[in-house]
Design brief:
A hairpin with an 8-residue loop joins strand 1 and strand 2. Strands 3, 4, 5, 6, 7, 8 and 9 form a 7-stranded mixed beta sheet that branches. The radius of gyration is 24 Å and the shape is globular. The protein contains 10 helices and 20 strands. By secondary structure, it is an alpha+beta fold. Keywords: Hydrolase, Magnesium, Metal-binding, NAD. This is NAD(+) diphosphatase.
Length: about 425
């Protein structure tokens, strides 16, 4: 919502920024050998999308029915006996198709399409896809609810799309759910984190089918939490893949501005932070300095950690990136863009960044995406570009905007934009 006069816009900006920054616990200090104060932040579990998974797997004691081993043994027994009797703990299973989780919608929120083991078996019996204990991947449990959670890939059972569609469920792209999630709703953020964790595991299982040492077939172990080569002479173990990425807000302290960049794949008018993968044998700080120099020709000095975010919405070949966020202080200012990596990179003043945060209607984009999910679940998909929702109150397109609160880039940018230096000390607006 945007207001017709400047004072109200400022009040709205403060209210919006506060809702983001209240998730931070910040303090200012002067680091040794540093000429300027830096802001160190610790974030709550719900601050970043895909973090704070409420059913993250825990190592349980031997014999615990919620442990991966015990749950897997129960699963094998149930599948071999074709039993439909109630069990404890209960099993809930989330189907995926081509990286997309089964989803339902009750406006204003979407929800994951969990199935019981019996329901899943009934659906798969109508298809040519068999169900075995190795088809399912253990996600975790909730002791308080007496439930163990699993995920399964059903991409080969194409007829399930219409089966679920008749019940107003559909398979929705995780990026769409990411935008559609109300970041102020902790339950919805938890659902998103579960979906992200499940997608990362399933995509890793699909990608890691053969041993990289001998070429033998890899088989799931520990209820899908790791894999092992089936070759008796090899038996190489591998674990779920994580690809670390540094993402940095490069700061020109003297001129009170930051470096933002554009990639050709970005939606129109969106600017964000620099980012890049970490090379073997490289520290996080070294990666920040190298990537900034390679992509923008800027030399970086001090590097300060901010926060991190799981990012399971990349390509299937990289099923779960870990975005590690930093403030990076520039030692040089002349930009030399690597056109193979970036479309453009520019310095932006604090005022311009604040305007970008003010004008971008993140809540409107979230509501539009949530409405799209509802229409998809009803079988009526709307073809609307989400980038059209980032405009000013007059209806004109905003000159620029930054990624929404679902991305760590937003938190890096907004936490800098809403800090001021007074007498050498950083303070909130």
């Amino acid at each position: 919502i945007f207001f017709p006069n400047e004072n109200k816009q400022r009040a709205m900006l403060f209210s919006y920024s506060s809702s983001i920054i209240t998730n931070f616990f910040c303090k200012t200090l002067i680091r040794p050998h540093s000429s300027h104060p830096v802001l160190l932040c610790t974030m709550s579990l719900n601050s970043h999308a895909f973090a704070g998974n409420p059913i993250t797997s825990r190592t349980a004691k031997s014999g615990d029915p919620f442990s991966p081993h015990s749950a897997f043994q129960t699963l094998k027994t149930l599948l071999s006996t074709q039993s439909h009797d109630p069990i404890s703990p209960d099993f809930k299973i989330l189907p995926f198709r081509k990286g997309r989780p089964l989803t339902g919608s009750n406006q204003p929120n979407w929800h994951l399409g969990w199935l019981s083991l019996g329901d899943l078996r009934s659906f798969l019996e109508k298809s040519e896809v068999g169900l075995s204990e190795n088809s399912l991947v253990y996600l975790g449990c909730k002791y308080e609810d007496d439930v163990v959670y699993w995920a399964i890939d059903v991409s080969e059972a194409s007829e399930l799309v219409s089966e679920f569609g008749d019940r107003q469920f559909c398979f929705v792209e995780l990026r769409t759910l990411m935008v559609a999630t109300d970041w102020a709703d902790s339950k919805a953020m938890g659902e998103l984190a579960i979906a992200g964790h499940a997608r990362a595991l399933l995509e890793w299982h699909i990608a890691a089918r053969f041993c990289g040492f001998c070429g033998g077939k890899m088989v799931p172990m520990e209820a899908g939490r790791r894999k092992q080569c089936s070759n008796e002479l090899c038996k190489k173990r591998i674990y779920p893949r994580v690809d670390p990425v540094v993402i940095m807000l490069v700061i020109d302290k003297e001129n009170d501005r930051v470096l933002l960049s554009r990639q050709s794949r970005f939606v129109p008018r969106m600017w964000s932070c620099l980012a890049g993968f970490i090379e073997p044998g490289e520290s996080l700080e070294e990666a920040v300095r190298r990537e900034t120099w390679e992509e923008a020709g800027i030399e970086v000095g001090e590097v300060v950690y901010h926060s991190s975010q799981p990012w399971p919405v990349g390509p299937a070949s990289m099923p779960c990136q870990l975005m590690v966020g930093f403030f990076a202080y520039a030692k040089s200012l002349e930009i030399n863009v690597d056109k193979k990596e970036l479309e453009d990179a520019k310095w932006h003043s604090r005022e311009d960044v604040k305007k970008a945060l003010t004008f971008a209607e993140y809540k409107k984009a979230q509501e539009t995406a949530a409405s799209k999910v509802e229409q998809m679940c009803k079988g009526v998909e709307k073809g609307q570009s989400l980038s059209a929702d980032f405009n000013v109150e007059s209806g004109e397109l905003a000159p620029m905007f930054v990624p929404g609160p679902f991305a760590i880039a937003h938190h890096l940018i907004s936490s800098w934009a809403n800090q001021v230096v007074l007498n050498g000390t950083l303070s909130n607006l």
